Amino acid sequence: MSTLNFDLDTAIDTLAEQGWIVIPHALPAALTAALRESCLAVWEEGLFHEAATGRADGQARRAEIRSDSVLWLDQVAERPAVAAYNAAMDDVMRGVNRGLYLGLAELESHFAVYPEGAFYKKHLDRFRDDDARTLTTVFYLNEGWPKDAGGQIRLYLDDECQEFVDIEPEAGTLVLFLSDCFWHEVLPARQQRLSVTGWYRRRGNSVPW
C-alpha cells in the first residue's frame, strides 16, 4: 500500500503543465518525523561530509557557492525510515513514468543539513556532460519552521531568472521540478535546516562519487 498522502495523478498533471509542483504533507507525519530523527542521529554520529560542486574528477568544495553538508541515503539504506521513504519515492517514479514517459530508472538522494548561515547559490541540477538527472526532488524535515528563518528554495520560473517562487522548508513538503529547466537557490538559513534532496535519473552511465 502506498504511503503517499496526495493524489499522484493530479500531481503528474501539474508537472506536465508547468514542470514543477509543491506538495504539502506529502508523506505521513510519522514517517517525516522518523526521517528527521534519522537525519539528526547520523549528523550527530559525524557521518556527513561537506558538499561539493561538479562531478567525478571535477568535484570541489566551493564554500562561496554552497555551504551545506550531505550524506547519501544508500549509506544508511537499512534504517527503516529511509527504506520507507525510498519505497514511497519509487511509487512516485512509477507514476511519473506512467504519466510522462520520462524513462526514469533510479533515484539518487541524500540527507542535507544546512547549519545556521548556510546557503546554496543559484544553479541548475543537470551536469553539462551528463543529462541523466531528469527530475529533482526535495523533501523537507523542519517541523514548525519560522517564517523569518530563511532557508527557502527560490525556484526561478523564467529563463531570465526574474520571476520566482520562494518555497518554505516546512516538514512534509515535497518539491518536484524538471532538473534541466529551473534555476534555483537555497537562501541563507538562520537556523539548522534539514531535507532529503534527490534526483531521478534516466538509464545511462552511473555517476562516480
From TrEMBL:
Keyword Oxidoreductase: yes
Residues in Fe2OG dioxygenase domain copies: 103-202
Cofactor(s) needed: L-ascorbate
SMART domains found in the cross-reference section: P4Hc (SM00702)
Pfam families: 2OG-FeII_Oxy_3
InterPro entries per record: HIF_prolyl_hydroxylases, Oxoglu/Fe-dep_dioxygenase_dom, Pro_4_hyd_alph, Pro_4_hyd_alph_FE2OG_OXY
GO molecular function: ferrous iron binding; L-ascorbic acid binding; peptidyl-proline dioxygenase activity
Keywords: Dioxygenase, Iron, Metal-binding, Oxidoreductase, Vitamin C
GO biological process, one term: cellular response to hypoxia
Keyword Metal-binding: yes
SUPFAM superfamilies associated with the record: Clavaminate synthase-like (SSF51197)
Highest taxon, organism lineage: Bacteria
PANTHER family for the chain: EGL NINE HOMOLOG-RELATED, HIF PROLYL HYDROXYLASE, ISOFORM C
Protein name: SM-20-related protein
Organism of this sequence: Pseudogulbenkiania subflava DSM 22618
